Amino acid sequence: MQGVGTDNEGILVLGATNIPWVLDAAIRRRFEKRIYIPLPEEHARLYMFKLHLGNTPHMLSEDDLKQLAKKTSGYSGADISIVVRDALMQPVRKVQSATHFRKVQGPSRTDPNVILDDLLTPCSPGCPGAFEMTWVDVPGDKLFEPPVSMSDMLRSLATSKPTVNDEDMVKLDKFKEDFGQEG
């Protein structure tokens, strides 16, 4: 970075790391400001859940999302992304493992404004109207994947742990005290 040029106007060099304690003194000197950005707070985690869900069909209420944000203290943005991506796969897993399907009403894949009443969605064998079949027997245009539910999110959350541990947090706090600034 030293001697990049004589006219550095308009040039910003930005670096980021999750392990700043491995940086040597020479590189720390070249970055004049070191700003510590903590793990996301609850309101930020709530926003991240909404962002990662996007327009995916789901049955999550605002209270459900707030509960998820509360349960994910210590999770990074990447950790939350993993939880949501795994939860988004739960309906696919339900379809693939289903032994019974039932007819439901829902939007057509070709025209969401058209409501069809002969779509097929996975269900338990004892569900009224259930008939035995596997997903390979369901025509592609008739498959209605169940929307993501709170139980899908909780199942994913149970298997996805935060990647930043207490030991790393202690090291980050020490680095911030020694060399950094609050964000």
Automatic annotation (TrEMBL):
Q: Which Pfam families match?
A: AAA, AAA_lid_3, Vps4_C
Q: Where is the AAA ATPase AAA+ lid domain?
A: 64-100
Q: Which InterPro entries match?
A: AAA_lid_3, ATPase_AAA_core, ATPase_AAA_CS, MT-severing_AAA_ATPase, P-loop_NTPase, Spast_Vps4_C
**Superkingdom of origin:** Eukaryota
SUPFAM superfamilies with a match to the protein in the record: P-loop containing nucleoside triphosphate hydrolases (SSF52540)
Q: Where is the Spastin/Vps4 C-terminal domain?
A: 120-180
Q: Enumerate the spans annotated as ATPase AAA-type core domain.
A: 2-39
Alphabetically ordered keywords of this record:
ATP-binding, Nucleotide-binding
Give the family, as the similarity comment puts it: Belongs to the AAA ATPase family.
Protein name as it appears in the record: Vacuolar protein sorting-associated protein 4B
Organism listed in the record: Timema podura (Walking stick)
Lineage, uppermost ranks = Eukaryota, Metazoa, Ecdysozoa, Arthropoda, Hexapoda
